[in-house]
Amino acid sequence: MIGEGTGVLFNSLAYAVFLPAVFILYWVLPHKARWPLLLAASYYFYMSWNAAYVVLIAATTLVSYGCALLLEKTDNVRKKKRYVGTALFLSLGILFVFKYYNFTASLLEGIHEAIRIPRLDVLLPVGISFYTFQTLSYVIDVYRGRTRAERNLGVYATFVSFFPQLVAGPIERSSNLLPQITSEKRFDYASATYGIRLILWGLYKKMVIADNLAVFVDRVFENVQHYQGYSFVLAAFFFSIQIYCDFSGYSDIARGSAKLLGIDLMENFRSPYFSSSIREFWSRWHISLSTWFRDYVYIPLGGNRKGRFRTILNNLITFLVSGLWHGANVTYLVWGGIHGAGQVVENLTGLDRKGRKKSRLRRIIGIPVVFVFVTLAWVFFRAKSFPDAVYVLTHLFTDLEILHPGAYFYNGMNMIFLNWELFFQNLALYILPLAVYDGCSLKTDVPAWIGQRGPLVRYGYIVLLVAVILVYGYVGQSTFVYFQF
Amino acid sequence: MWKLVLRVVVAAVLILGVIVGVNYFVDASQVITSRGQEQMAELVLAGHTVAVPENYNERVYQMALVERMKDIPETIVLGASRGMYLGKEITGYDTLFNHCVSGACIEDYYAVPQLYREKFGKYPGRVILEISPWVLNEFNPEIRWLEVFSWRSALEKLYAALNGRKPDIKESAGETDPFNSDGQPFYSRENPWFSLPYFQYNCYVISQKGLDAFRGNTARISTDPDEAAELPDGSVRNPASQENPNPRRLAQVLAETGAVTFEYAHRMTRVGEKESAALEALIRELQEHGTEVILFLAPFSPTQCGYSFDQDLNPGFRAAEAYLRDLAGKNGLRLIGGYDSRNFGLTDEQYIDYSHPDKSAVKAVWESSNPSF
User: Fold this and answer.
1) Cβ within 8 Å, pair A189-B4
2) pLDDT digits (tens, 9 = 90+) for A139-190
3) B8 — contact with chain A (CB < 8 Å)?
4) Contact flag A6-B183 (C-beta cutoff 8 Å)
5) Any catalytic annotation for residue A326?
6) Distance separating alpha carbons of residues B192 and B30, to the nearest angstrom
7) Which pLDDT belongs to residue A85?
8) What is the pLDDT of residues B202-228, one digit of tens each?
9) Identified catalytic residue from A286, A326, A395, A404
10) Is A211 helix (H, G, I), strand (E, B) or coil?
């Protein structure tokens, strides 16, 4: 469970007031006053979730800030290791206490019934995994000499807490974000409208696609024993779309919001469901996290430089840690393990190798195969427990009669209160526009392309998205899935 | 920068304008305008049987009626859907008007008397209170009394005057309140003018009805027994398929199994303190002003009684009836009916569903003055 309070959600009226207010103030104020404004706005944004947990982000900020300064002051390797170790220990320690302590306690208790460990009654501070990893990468980069330590605590605190990406990423590198916070900027109309187009597309993905599909998904996964067959297939498929739209929608709004302030955040998703291998999928999905694990876990473990066996092992370790990063639950570990195993198999069979001759055929076959693989793995990610996930996967085709498949489809849809009209509405409103947009994104930057077109296309895009969001958007309160990580 | 701000502001105003415009001109649930209800009230008071326009708001309709009445009726009926058949024909009272509204809870009982007091300076001479057990249920999650501002204002005035405080607005209905599971308030505080969910519903109605959606739901005189209608005495006529005994209706009655869960009745084990105090305060007020009060208890179907009473799946029903009988005895009220239909010799064939007796059943209950329980 994440921290109490609903906070200023991107898909709320509060944010529709908050963002324009920050935007106007930001550009009205002189350059020197801008980062303090961003810092104040970011802390207000974070405190709207749970004011008490501001202590944690402040502590993480201070620890990483101090350690980075100390790291830069000394050339003594032993001291450097001590400083970086301290930063890792304290930052990961806070993360462990709030996210993994109870999980570890229950695992240890499972070893022997005599073991009894008291539990902590704490709520998971929103975004803790994101900002912890962001500060860790900063300290490690300073340790490696790849970036300079920031002297100004306020600027550094703004880097850690920058509100558009605070609670669910992208996990920014200091080399990208820190200079942008202090650099002098002039308002750029084209850049700002690009941001608005991104925000609208993000809202469409979140409110229209993800939240409406969540209704069907939640119905099934909250009570798996009540369902079977095709309803599981639909729920898994819908969740695959939901999680992508939920998370990438958040990232788009985050990037769009930052763009309004003249700041470029890294791209976090690049049409991941058009991947023809698991490896490619991870180069397109949650890019800021996958590159983080590549740079700070996989490569330090030896990457692919120490032989085939170590490559396999490093791959598996990286994906298991990635799974655990998402949550303190066996289901996330399994999910990570499945992806790790998938990549190992690809690696061993050479399926992930690049090659121009085979590329078209491989893509035609690979894209649906990878999508099905990823979708089945998502079942572990979404299920409430490991037995639930196994139940879903082992009941995907119950009641399917090859000679009379109609009943299988009809019953499955009926169980989740889905009829053909709704099914095609989902397809037309959600899946097709998403596929077209993502397909186009493979070749071009869609918001930028729209910005270069005539007024009919530019305004048409905005009017159409606003209209669809207003008419079909889910308007109940819904948080983002990745806020819990 | 200001150019962009200006454009965003213009867009925001346009969007708001579209939302408000659609909500006002379509107003599919008639929560902003009262056109349909006003037409209905005029026709009913002119002595017509009026076909019910789609989605009309019963509380707005009641207000429109009282507002247009020239004389105060001698007898009125207050209650919920289970009391809607109580009309002139059944009770024998000539100047009677039935003001029952669906989903009535104790707060609703205060609205119509207050409207009469404001309009005529007095209460009607006789008030029949149809009281279902869940009216006295402390977990009753019903919120319809809150939805119409002027209805709520009227009932709050009288409620506050008689109870020393305004009625509580429940934020939850107990520990396992499903409405509150996402941390949302228990009821909608949405303003229908600006409400996005209401806008979406209105758009859905437009998609179904086309431009007709903007023409509103017109009330009209009806002689067709196959359609639902409001009768000139405020009582109702259900469509013939529901009004008269038939196998399909019976199948529905028999299909109901287990405890009554409507208005969280299954969680009711006793009479709520606040609810009973509010009921007693209202009765006291009416009696002090010379109004005769009659309590009417509509029975549940025999099949349902098997679950609710024999299997004791709704213990609150027995407690509510015992309380009401005691209240009637202490205050010299006439009590007609009871919750167990078997005491009146009713059959499942006389029911529309598990809780709604048909007209013949209501007549039979009314005519049996003092059933044994």
Assistant:
1) yes
2) 999 999 999 999 999 999 999 999 999 988 799 999 999 999 999 999 999 9
3) yes
4) yes
5) yes
6) 10
7) 93
8) 998 898 888 888 877 778 898 898 999
9) A326
10) helix
Name the CA dihedral angle for A132, A139, A332, A482, rounded to a multiple of 10 degrees: 40
For testing contact with chain B, the best of A11, A470, A479 (most B CBs within 10 A): A470
The answer to whether the peptide bond before residue A170 is cis (omega within 30 degrees of 0) is yes
A167 exposure class (CB count in 10 Å sphere: 0-12, 13-18, 19+): buried
B198 Cβ under 8 Å from any chain A Cβ: no
ipTM: 0.79
**Chain B positions in Cβ-Cβ contact with residue A187 (cut-off 8 Å):** 1
Cβ of residue A459 closer than 8 Å to a chain B Cβ? no
Q: pLDDT digits over A256-291, tens only? A: 999 999 999 999 999 999 999 999 999 999 999 999
Tokens (6 digits) for B348: 């499942």
- Mean pLDDT for chain B overall: 89
Beta carbons of B87 and B235 less than 8 angstroms apart: yes
Chain-centroid distance, C-alpha A15: 20
Counting residues of chain A whose pLDDT is more than 90, the rounded percentage is 64
Contact A192 B4 (CB under 8 A): yes
Write the residue in A6, A187, A471 that is nearest to B200 by C-beta: A471
A20 touches chain B (CB under 8 A): yes
Task: State whether residue B220 is helix, strand or coil.
Answer: strand
Looking up tokens 């390797």 gives A77
- What letters, b where the CB count within 10 A reaches 16 and e where it falls short, cover B320-345? bbebbbebbeeeebebbbbbbbbbbe
Is A454 buried (19+), middle (13-18) or exposed (0-12) by CB count in 10 A?
exposed
Please name which of B80, B163, B167 lies closest in space to residue B128, comparing C-alpha atoms. Answer: B80
Q: How far is A431 from chain B (nearest CA, A)?
A: 21
The domain B34-169+214-367 is placed in CATH, from the list 3.40.50.720, 2.60.40.350, 3.40.50.300, 3.40.50.1110, at 3.40.50.1110
- Say whether A24 and B15 touch across the interface (CB within 8 A): no
Give ∠ CA B255-B257-B261 in degrees, rounded to 5: 120
* Domain ranges across chain B: 1-33, 34-169+214-367
Provide the pLDDT for residue B31: 74
Partner residues linked to B340 by β-bridges:
B300
pLDDT above 80: residue B95:
yes
Chain B CB contacts of A472 under 8 Å are 200
Spatial neighbors of B78 by CB under 8 A, at least 6 apart, are: B99, B100, B104, B108, B109, B112, B113, B127, B128, B129, B130
Q: A421 or A218: which carries more pLDDT confidence?
A: A218
Please give, rounded to a whole number of angstroms, the shortest distance from the CA of A30 to a CA of chain B.
Answer: 14
